[in-house]
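User: You have something folded?
Assistant:
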Amino acid sequence: MKKILIYWLPVLLWISIIFYASSQPYEKQDLRPALSANLDLSIIENLFSSVTFHYAGDEISIQALGAAHFLEFFIRKAAHFFTYFVLGFLINRALSYHFLNNRLTYMSSWFLTILYAISDEVHQSFTPNRTPHVEDVMIDAAGGLIGVTLALFIYRKIRTKRI
């Protein structure tokens, strides 16, 4: 029982943090005031004024969003990637305790990470001023894939040292 807690408690804590963050309306997580107050956004404007692309049907550019919102967009997407990188790693770590088959652990870990990413986006659809995006699930899946892959290499190396 103790080993199960050691492996699964971090997963449960991490998904609880994700759930809590998804429960907050955008206004509680708005980084723009802090970015505007603490950074010289003219540097961002000068460096990235020509960058324009579309994400989830919206134009992402300094002209369309302003420098603070433009920067916040990238911070939020990096947070998506990192959050699911950690989740994928933790799930792989927990499952590797139960399964010796690396391929089964790898695929199951990534599948569970994606499944949670989808459920998180659905959860956001019930949160005021939050919008679910398939594109966010894709970023989450990429982060999860890298996290699962890193865990696979680390735990494979640990297992070969034990043998």
The mean pLDDT is 94. The first helix runs from residue 2 to 23.
